[in-house]
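Changelog-adjacent note: as of this version, every example in the card shows the full chain rather than a window. The one below runs 459 residues end to end.
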Amino acid sequence: MGKDYDAVIIGAGPGGYAAGIKCARNGLKTAVIERDKPGGTCLNYGCIPSKALLGSAEFIIKARHAHLMGLDVSFGEPNWGKIQSRKDAIVKSFTSGVEGLLRSNGAELIRDDAVAEGRGSVRLKNSGELLTCKHIILASGSEPKEIPSIPFDGEKVISSKEALSLSEIPKSLVIIGGGVIGCEMGCLYAALGCKATIIEALPRLLPREDDWMGRLLEKEFRKINLKALTDVKVSSADTSGDLCRLNLSSGEMLESEKVLVAVGRSPVISEETAEALSLEFNGGEVVIDEKMRTSAEGVYALGDLAGKTYLAHGAYLEAEILADILAGKDGKIKDYRLVPRAVYSFPEAAGVGLSEKEAQDRGIDYSVTKSGFLANGRSLAHNQTAGEVRVIKNNADGRIIGVSMVGDSATEMISSARLIMGTNEKAGEVSFPHPTVSEVLKEAWMGAYGESIHLPPKR
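Full-length structure tokens:
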């Protein structure tokens, strides 16, 4: 006789464990099944370890530029072993924290692999135990996408997972893909002294954001000795020698100690589950509606498996809303473009709402206001003057429909930018502390209505 639950969740990544906690808090008897480590890719092989390493890299860059702050600082070689140990300790604290949160909220964590055999039926593969339930939530995440002609070998051709735990800093690294992961890993290893090059097939870095953001990042990356080749493809690769040899569509040939393939991620789901539930897919992503319902009755999907944002905080949002839906409350995802997008590069980049191109493609009559960090007192004081904030306003109703930014603290300010989405409130009535970096956002927001004190009037 198997165990019976209200909700069984397959996967304990950000979406899975958050759904488990919220479902349990809502009074649902809940089980969360995880075959690897609690926390999923984000906590173990993505968001947290990468930000820990980038935190160390940022200190390296600041130390190298200390003379610009009036400080004489001698700086030696980075201690990669200590940097890795610090990262591992941070990751361990978070994964153990997830286990504790599930337990303290009354959700059961089961260490096993699982297959959904049908409506209300989940089989544990290792123990063979059958779990029955009212609701199944699929939250099995994603994995790095591979290029068939340059397959991962874990040594020379690596994914983002291996890039976070290399035993040594490579002397040279070619990164295929100029999206979020490519930009972040490029900044990390360039700061560590590695000769790093990003190759992006499309005309700019961060292809899903507006042109100006990718162009500005490319310019700023050169200052940390990170090279970016855009509108270029890898024609062929030879990894048989001591160095990887990449032939590019531009006719150039690059040699590198390692190649990091960062061309995106692919959803992960067992074939047995997909077949048993007769799930509908869009490419590799499970099709869901605004309430995260799949094509199978009583089965829901969220996070990277559904592929709406490929962001941990996007999965958190889905998890909280879904847990309320399963508890009988009303809820749905209103607009995935309102989930902020963040890139922890040097400098940072972020966006929320529509991009300028999306507004144009939708035929919206819009205007854009810009505010630069160079004119911001706090940014100038901290020698972080690169970048700008742009606010997009719908001219028809005066509402803010998009914000994009490149610069210091962009990933922190984008949360504030989310709060002004859809508003036509007078920015002048909202007080921002002075001096703060966030005033760059305020100036662009006020400028959208012609109210900025520090921006020149629009002609």
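Structural remarks: The chain is about 30% helix and 25% strand.
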